DNA sequence: ACAAAAGTGTTGAGTATACACCCATGA
DNA sequence: TCATGGGTGTATACTCAACACTTTTGT
């Protein structure tokens, strides 16, 4: 059967259930984490899954994603990126559903604990994710891969940190995003050379007796984006 | 209204029309081009648009995209990437339609001209795109941006070239993808250092009297992907 | 012989990496 | 005073960017 066929127009085409599923990243000063939820409906009720919902006709997809995040965490205006749309015919055992995947970065301590507990949710380390329903495991792997790529090109890491943070915290964040160690001298040199951070005169003493200076992210930092220094950048 | 609500499950949720739209890139040895089609159905019949169709219930999204490409160009097994899903409530004037965008790279000379002419299609330079229906103009800008990013990380340019090509051709391709000139000495040095190309002893004399050596892409070329040399690569 | 495109090396600057010790503080 | 994490500098290797002339050959 031909798909491109003037006869197959609006009212002769099939409609499909559309879901929006959201991978929520957080950072607890040690590890990159994922917020997972126990599924509330049959089938597979009680199993771990991403948070999601069916998209209603009067909401744009992005607004659907924002609502889901707000309803599950109590947060607004958080970092949100569309990831990919998943459309295998049999990805849902009940009926055909396509799902638009998003990922978001939140500051763990901002989160509204009560609303999270309502939803029977839990933070998991990204290297210790339980089995997830449907293709949510794939979505999570894709989200982690997308986060890594984007974190190398844009300073999105700051969306995972509190307003004031220390350089050792920032380093731990990048180490846990990329799952590999950095040299602290080189790390500090590079980060500071980007002129995105503002040093304060306050210290955070929760991690050491000496204390580490707190920094904040300069919102209007202009980023040097015109470098062409990558692998296939002929 | 709450989206996340156990009462809002499969049979109580609204279904939505889902379209798949495809941005088709080609390269004619001089310029990066886009294949656009005259819309066959009302409303906006006859206006330029991407090629697309409504997704049927028994096809995965990617298979829908492949079918559309096959029906419009006669080509199978071509490079195809999911771009983004477009979901504004009023993006289609007739009724709610969400559209999954794809982009594909084809070898212009492979294309089945007859099937293209059936569809009333035309190649446009990417710096000279006409006004497109709906949000297809946005899709095209997004596709060009995505192509540029991906072309810097993976050797996808070869999907736009014939099996045998010259280095000046390859350089022209990258120049037209990025819309900026390269130094031929630096370009050749860098390309050849990647060990992805196999030189043949044949020459292409269509562009000059001297002729340029033909190369082919090594399919099993292992790419050095472990460099960490980018802007936010802390 | 000449026009037109193909092909070729070197140098300087900037950036990444490797590496080890002193500092400040609370217990 | 000592254990713990915070903070600092230098030398080497590498990669990018800038730059101009010679070669080939058909007409």
At CATH level 2, the architecture of the largest domain in chain A is Alpha-Beta Complex
- C-alpha geometry of chain A: elongated
Our count of helices of chain A gives 5
Oligomerization state: homodimer
Write the H/E string of chain A, N to C.
Answer: EEEEHEEHEHEHHEE
The chain pair with the largest interface is: A-B, 72 and 72 residues
The biggest sheet of chain A, with number of strands, parallel, antiparallel or mixed sense and barrel status, is: 7 strands, mixed
Task: Give start-end ranges of low-pLDDT stretches of chain A.
Answer: 224-231
Task: Give the integer mean of the pLDDT values of chain A.
Answer: 90
**Structure class of chain A:** alpha+beta
* Number of strand segments of chain A: 10
Describe the structure.
The structure is a homodimer of 234-residue chains. In chain A, the strands form two sheets. In chain A, strands 1, 2, 3, 4, 5, 6 and 7 form a seven-stranded mixed beta sheet that branches. Chain A is elongated, with a radius of gyration of 21 Å. Chain A has helices at residues 61-73, 113-118, 136-153, 167-178, 184-193, and strands spanning 15-27, 32-38, 48-49, 51-54, 79-86, 97-105, 121-125, 164-166, 197-204, 212-217. The first copy, chain A, has two domains: 16-152, Nucleoside Triphosphate Pyrophosphohydrolase (Alpha-Beta Complex), CATH 3.90.79; 163-217, Arc Repressor Mutant, subunit A (Orthogonal Bundle). Chain A is an alpha+beta fold and 234 residues long. Residues 224-231 of chain A have low confidence and may be disordered. Chain A contains five helices and ten strands, in the order ββββαββαβαβααββ. In chain A, a hairpin with a 7-residue loop joins strand 9 (197-204) and strand 10. Strand 1 of chain A pairs antiparallel with strand 1 of chain B, so a sheet runs across the interface. Chain A binds a DNA duplex (27 and 27 nucleotides) through residues 166-168, 183-186, 188-190, 205, 207-213, 228-229.
């Amino acid at each position: 059967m031909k798909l491109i066929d003037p006869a197959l127009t609006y009212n002769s085409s099939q409609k499909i259930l559309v879901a929006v599923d959201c991978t929520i990243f957080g950072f607890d000063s040690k590890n990159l984490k994922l917020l997972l939820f126990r599924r509330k409906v049959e089938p597979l009720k009680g199993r771990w899954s991403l948070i999601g919902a069916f998209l209603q006709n009067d909401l744009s997809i992005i607004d659907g994603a924002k609502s889901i995040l707000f309803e599950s965490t109590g947060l607004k205006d958080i970092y949100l990126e569309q990831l990919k749309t998943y459309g295998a015919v049999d990805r849902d055992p009940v009926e055909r559903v396509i799902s638009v995947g998003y990922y978001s970065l939140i500051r763990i301590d901002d989160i509204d604990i009560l609303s999270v507990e309502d939803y029977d949710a839990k933070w998991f380390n990204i290297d210790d994710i339980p089995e997830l329903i449907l293709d949510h495991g794939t979505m999570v792997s894709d989200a982690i891969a997308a986060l890594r790529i984007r974190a190398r090109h844009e300073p999105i890491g700051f969306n995972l940190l509190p307003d004031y943070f220390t350089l050792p915290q920032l380093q731990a964040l990048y180490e846990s995003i990329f799952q590999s160690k950095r040299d602290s001298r080189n790390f500090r040199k590079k980060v500071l050379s980007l002129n995105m951070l503002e040093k304060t005169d306050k210290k955070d003493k929760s991690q050491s007796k000496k204390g580490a200076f707190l920094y904040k992210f300069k919102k209007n930092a202009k980023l040097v984006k015109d470098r062409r220094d990558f692998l296939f950048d002929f």
